[in-house]
Amino acid sequence: MKARTGWLGIGLAVLGVTGSVATLWMVFFWVPTEARQGVIQRIFYLHVPSAWVAFMAFGIVAFASAVYLWLGDERADMAALAAAEGGMVFTAIVLTSGPLWGKIAWGTYWTWEPRLTLTLLLGFIYLGYMMVRNATDSPERGKRFAAVVGIVGAINIPLIHMSVYWFRSLHPDPVVLKPDGPTLDGDMLTTLMIGLLSFTLLFFGLMTLRYGVERARHTLELRESA
Amino acid sequence: MSDERAVPGWLSVVAAVAGKDLRIEFRTRSRSFTMAGFVVLVGVLFNFSIDQALVRPQDIASGLTWITLILSGLIGVGRTFAIEKEDGAMSGLLLTPAPRDAIYIGKVVANFILVFGIVLLTLGVFGLFFRLDYGNHPGTLLLVLGAGALGFVALATLFGALTASTTLGESLLPILLFPLLVPMVVYGASASGRLLAGRPVAEVAGQGRMLAAFAVLALGAGAALFGQIVEE
Amino acid sequence: MTDDTSRPSSEGLGLHALRRRFGTHVALRDVDASLPAGLITTVFGPNGAGKSTLLRILAGSLRPTAGSVSWRGEKLDPRSADWRSRIGVLSHATHLYAPLGARENLAFHARMHGLEAPDLDAALERVDLLSRAEDRVSGFSRGMRQRLALARTLLHDPDVVLLDEPFTGLDSHAARLLEGVLRTLRDGRRTVVLVTHALGEGLALADHVLLLVRGSVRLDAPASDFEVDGFAERYHGIVDAAETGLAATASGSPA
Asked: CA-CA distance, C84 to C77, in Å (whole number)?
């Protein structure tokens, strides 16, 4: 079991890295420059796939947490932890690429753009998840607490999403932000899709490896306590 | 098991827990004084922090009310489990056959009464300090604030139980809670802002529905997950 | 310990391969024992023996890592509401609300158990606190709080009473009172599990004795097997042997 997880993880990670490298190549050398924003728009191909992965990862955290609370299977908690750590990394990528893009393209670091705002809040929920895991005397309780944070967070995110978009619709920003551009032409769409696929594979690779490490740690603990 | 044993009724537990919490609060006044004092002081500081020639309190009252409600509610609800921790009272409660979700709802009821009292105080204090105009539909205003307060209390009670059992304690509560309160503040402040500006009720119906949905989801999640949190 | 099938009614709490792990620390190590019904079993053991862990599992506060518990021959889930309605737990935490009065504390507890018309006066009288019924618990001494906690424990007439170091911090008056009340529990209806450090009081009250050291059962026998005088020596002998021969000692119970 351990060996299999290891090989699967490495395999996925290698695919992911290859795809990411290919994406980078496409971003810098192949895809045409977007008309309005110029070269800086190329951040889009890293920013958007990262956001996709960050939220998908949290979905996994929430689902695994629910399974953990329901069935009590430690492996579900390990999966949640692995997904959370990976998700945090990609959340950080979104939150650094976003303001950078904003500053260079439109002159401001932060404009409460709904998607970015939502990602910021997701970042805090992730932070809460990790803090709570380690803040108890009993590791067992810490895992349960984290699972609760994950589940409540996931229930809340659609509501937060609706509210920030609704808020923005009431107070439209004078600078019209259309990070996607009005339409995506063929090459741009291809680059985006490759980026999406690569980052997703990379995430699952990292998650699988992290899960493997956690399982090994757990097995070691069991051996030491015998 | 052969012989039948008395089982506490669900509503009876809710009433008993809520009553017990309120009675303790009435005797010790540990939370209500702190929260009330906080509200008055916010009003005072607010008065000194704005130039009323440039900014009308009436315009910012809505947002300020919600922030005050959240911060003072945080103080109050955060303490709700401190009392239970003394002498391990909550552990004793969990050794009884009383259902956990009923215990949770009982605490939510007590906390809601406390927080709604603070809402009324806040409106009163701001009305006094800033000659606030409550708009044409004060009843609806209270309803909106009540719905928001309920959702807030539901989440704060759940996470308050959680943080009470962590080494970081109550200081963890804002980090966990604030991201989740964004919908409440968005819809709530918008609705109360409009009502304070004299707008008709129909304009805030959508926000009201969202606040109600938020409260219902929060209560449901809390009731379902409270048992997981208090278990050792 | 084998099932005594000729007297099934004497079977009380059964512990089957009970195991509880906290990280790498094993608190209970495959504990098998039978605590007879209607009798008082005293659980002895040095610090870290796993006595409190055992009690918490029986009270439903803690889940075992492995193994099971049975009651009267049937598998038991100590975390069920039905079990909680049958047990009374007294630990060194009093589980009382200090701002409330003695009677109010009992009344609240009664409502948590769904008791319709509890006789609070009798409960208070039993622990000699009727005169202080309306006073707030915040003004009570440690001994008085423990007595009130005992009243609360017995209020719903539990079938099983679990006591975790109840003599801790009590003055002699309160200790004597507690011992007196515990003796009345020896009525054949109730199964009592008493965890204590106090060898003297523990043995005096015991019908059955269980000795745990480092999570394993070292002794599991009726109290009549022991002399009061020689018990302390025997106890220390077993504990020392268990502690020093930790890895090598097989779990030997003379039962």
From this structure: 10
Cβ <8 Å between C24 and A224 = yes
Q: Residue C91 corresponds to which tokens in the numbers above?
A: 């630990």
Q: Between chains, do B179 and A166 touch, taking CB under 8 Å as contact?
A: no
Q: What is the largest CA-CA distance in chain C?
A: 57
- Cβ of A151 within 8 Å of Cβ of B221? The answer is yes
Q: What is the pLDDT of residues C19-56, one digit of tens each?
A: 998 888 889 999 999 998 889 999 998 888 889 999 99
Question: At C96, phi and psi to the nearest 5?
Answer: -105, 155
Task: Please judge whether A148 and B162 are an interchain contact, meaning their C-beta atoms are less than 8 angstroms apart.
Answer: yes
Which helix (H) or strand (E) segment holds residue B110: the answer is helix B100-130
Q: Output the CATH code of domain C13-251.
A: 3.40.50.300
Closest approach of C182 to chain A, Cα-based (Å): 33
| Both structure tokens of C243 | 């502690």
Chains sharing 3 or more CB pairs under 8 A with chain A:
B, C
Instruction: Please give the backbone phi and psi of residue C163, each rounded to the nearest 5 degrees, phi first.
Output: -125, 120
Please report, to the nearest 10 degrees, the dihedral formed by the alpha carbons of residues C173, C179, C184, C185 taken in order.
Answer: 140
pLDDT tens by residue, B33-86: 999 999 999 999 998 988 888 888 888 889 999 999 999 999 888 888 888 888
Give ipTM to 2 decimals. Answer: 0.91
Model's pTM, two decimal places? 0.90
- Give the C-alpha separation, A200 to C187, whole Å: 68
Query: Which of C19, C24, C61, C62 to substitute to test the interface with A, most A CBs within 10 Å?
Result: C24
B99, two tokens: 């259902």
Name the residue among C212, C126, C198 with its Cα closest to residue C168. Answer: C198
C contacts of B94 (beta carbons < 8 Å): 61
Using the Cα atoms of residue A113, residue A119, residue A120 and residue A125 in order, give the sign of their dihedral. positive
Name the DSSP letter for residue A29: I
Given a cut of 50, whether residue C1 has pLDDT beyond it is: no
Searching chain B, which residue's CA lies closest to the CA of residue C59?
Answer: B95
